[in-house]
Amino acid sequence: MHVFVTGGSGLTGPTVVAELVAAGHIVTGLARSDSAAARLESLGATPHRGSLDDLDSLRSGAEAADGVLHMAFGGDFADPDDMMRRDRTAIETLGQALERSDKPFVSTSGTLVMPAGRETTEKDEPDPAGVAGFRIPGEKACLGFAARGVRASVVRLAPTVHGEGDHGFIGMLVATARMTGVSAYIGDGANRWPAVHRLDAAILFRLAVEKAPAGSVLHGVAESGVTLKSIAETIARGLDLPTVSLTQEEAAAHFASPFMATVYGIDAPVSGAYTQESLDWSPTHPTLLDDLEHGDYLAYDYLA
Fold this sequence. Notes:
With about 300 residues, the chain is of the alpha/beta class. It has helices at about 15-20, 35-40, 55-65, 80-95, 135-145, 170-180, 200-210, 230-240, 250-255, 260-265, 275-280, 290-295; strands at about 1-5, 25-30, 45-50, 65-70, 105-110, 150-155, 160, 185, 190-195, 215-220, 225, 245. It is about 40% helix and about 20% strand.
C-alpha cells in the first residue's frame, strides 16, 4: 500500500514510518523543511514538500496515495482555537481527497480528550470541556468521512508515548526535577496516566492503516494508568533527589505554567482493551517505569 503520512519526521512519526516501510508499504511523507525531507529519506520514505497550511500539497499527496495517516499537529498552545482550526481544515482537505474510494484515513488525537476521574473506554464520549477538548473537532471531522466512502478511523495516543529521545511530558518532568532539585507530584500523587511505548504505538498505527474498520476509535494505550507518584519516585531514585508533594497552586509555580500543573494533576486512566482485541494488537515493549529506570530519560538535560 502507498501511504501518505503527515508528521512523519516528528517525535513518534519516524518510528511509524520505519514500521510501515519494514512491513512492505510505500511511504510518502509531508516535509516542510530540508531536514524533515532528509529524515524521511533516511527512513526509506519519499518526501512530499509542503505543510499543514498548504492545502494544495495535502490534497495532491492524498490523491496520489492508497491511504493517509495524519499525525502532524502544530501551532501555538497559547491559542488552542487556532490549532483546532488548522487541524480540522487539514483533516477535511485530506478526507475530501479520499471520498468514495474506500481508502484508509487514520487521524491522530489523544486520550486526554476523555472525561477525567474514571477509566474510560473507546466507546465513551470525549469531554469538550476537558484539557484536550480542542482535539475533538478534528476527531469528528475524520470520523465523518466514514459515511462518505472512506475507511476513516482515529487513534488516540496516551499522553506519554515513551521511548528513546522522548522530550514530551515525562522528559519535562525529568528536566524540572533537575532544575529544582526535587521530583514533584501533586496532592497524593494517586492520579493516573496511560502510557505506551513508541514502538508499540507504531505497530498500532500500521494495523489501523491496514485493517481498522470505518468509524473506529482506537486507544493507543499499553498501560491504562501509571500513578504520577510512582513516576516522580522513579525519577527521584534515578537522579538521587527527594520527592515532594505540591498543592495545585504550588504546582503552577513549580512547573512554570498553570496549564502544565493542570495536566500533571489530572486523573485520566484509559482502557485500550477494545483496540487490542479488535486489531489483535499486543504491546510487548518496556513499561513506562522500566523505560524511566533503564532508558535514556535520565542521561541528559531536556532544558539545557
